[in-house]
Design a protein that fits this description.
The protein is mostly helical and 350 residues long. The chain is built from 21 helices and no strands. The radius of gyration is 28 Å and the shape is extended. It starts with a helix and ends in a 5-residue tail after the last helix. The relative contact order is 0.04.
Length: 350
């Protein structure tokens, strides 16, 4: 075959592949739309009962019992809607909706569905176990953090947050830095839902191999004022090889540190440090609000990094009268003048 013929065949194959992809996308969208319409049609007769239960207007449980009595194809469609509603309601309505899923067998099926070949079924199973607070399924949900599908891992992460068991904190923190990683945002939200019992897990995670795990641990240590992490946060700020981890440690120390942390934060503002770390440390000094930081912050007002200079000026304002006084006597530059204007708007004497 000539070169022209090979080129023609190759172009045709590419065109067919593109056409096949378009048809796949269109057919998937059509099937999803048809499925949604079918679900809506099956659930429509039961919407008054759903609304009554979800709004807490079912004191005699008549509407809940009507939902429990639904069977056939409508039951599966109704369960999908109940699962969606459970993510939006709290208190008694949530308990009543969960009892519908329990009566329909959805909760009993969920642990088995966590190993189903269908990704959607696995993700939904983890979601149901979390929404219905099935604490006995905790080991299975933890195992789902290693699922090949990212949507299942996210669903398992959120389920762990709803289950609220601190014993899941260590594997969840490890999952943040795993090869099949859990996103840091949902993981942080879930860990916050586990309460003060995660203190030791956070402390251990500050020494983890993964910088992502260390960053999440540093952030949550400061967010929740977990003082057990303080000494390791100081170590991270000084020695961690990852600048993002060091910046997160600085923010945490600013939120819950003590005057003794001023020197280590000032070290982080030195010229040889990464710019994001310098800025984080300057802002943390404002959060810490200790007067011993005044001289160090004054030295940053003329820094070549204008954003750092602005942060330093703002931090001086946050130090109170001693910072205001220092800022009033500082040589004028854009950062200083901006801070003085802000201070005037706040009613200070600058």
């Amino acid at each position: 075959m000539s070169a022209h013929g090979v080129l023609w065949v190759s172009s045709a194959l590419v065109l067919l592949a593109c056409l096949g992809l378009v048809l796949l996308i269109v057919s998937t969208k059509v099937l999803r739309t048809l499925r949604e319409r079918r679900t809506a049609a099956l659930v429509a007769p039961h919407r008054p009962d759903l609304l009554a239960v979800a709004s807490g207007e079912d004191d005699d449980r008549v509407h809940r019992d009507a939902l429990i009595a639904v069977d056939g194809a409508a039951r599966d469609a109704l369960d999908d809607v109940v699962v969606d509603l459970l993510g939006k309601v709290r208190g008694v309505p949530a308990e009543e909706l969960a009892s519908v899923l329990l009566a329909h067998g959805a909760v009993d099926r969920a642990p088995h569905d966590l190993s189903h070949r269908n990704t959607v079924r696995r993700a939904r199973a983890a979601h149901v176990l979390g929404l219905c607070h099935v604490g006995a399924a905790l080991p299975l949900v933890v195992e789902a953090l290693r699922d090949p599908a990212p949507e299942v891992r996210v669903s398992a992460t959120r389920a762990l947050g709803r289950l609220g068991q601190p014993s899941a904190a260590a594997p969840l923190l490890a999952a943040v830095g795993a090869e099949r990683a859990v996103p840091a945002g949902p993981a942080a939200d879930a860990l916050e839902g586990m309460g003060v019992g995660i203190a030791d897990a956070l402390r251990d995670a500050l020494l983890a191999t993964s910088p992502t795990t260390r960053t999440v641990a540093a952030y949550l240590s400061g967010e929740g004022s977990f003082t057990r992490s303080t000494d390791l946060l100081r170590l991270s700020l000084r020695t961690d090889e990852d600048p993002v981890v060091r910046a997160a440690a600085a923010v945490a120390l600013g939120r819950m540190g003590r005057p003794v942390d001023v020197p280590v934060l000032l070290e982080g503002t030195q010229a040889q440090q990464p710019s994001e770390l310098r800025r984080a440390c300057a802002a943390a000094l404002g959060d810490l609000a200790d007067a011993s930081a005044v001289d160090g912050l004054l030295g940053l007002l003329a820094d070549p990094d204008p954003r750092l200079a602005e942060i330093a000026a703002t931090s001086l304002i946050r130090l109170g009268p001693v910072g205001h006084s220092a800022l009033a006597g500082a040589p004028s530059n854009p950062a200083v003048e901006t801070a003085r204007a802000v201070a005037r708007l706040q009613g200070s004497a600058l």
